[in-house]
Amino acid sequence: MSGASATSQPPKRQRWLLVALGLVLALIGVFLALPAPIDPAAYQPPAP
Hints:
The chain contains three helices and no strands. It has 48 residues and is mainly α. The radius of gyration is 20 Å and the shape is elongated.
């Protein structure tokens, strides 16, 4: 019955998950706020 213990997570793990979610949301918000600083053409290799 390992599923029963998974429901009661320690506060430390919940805090870690909240921090991770916050970082991901912050990164997404920054990327959405920035006006695409890198052009897609820069990623393409030069023509031979």
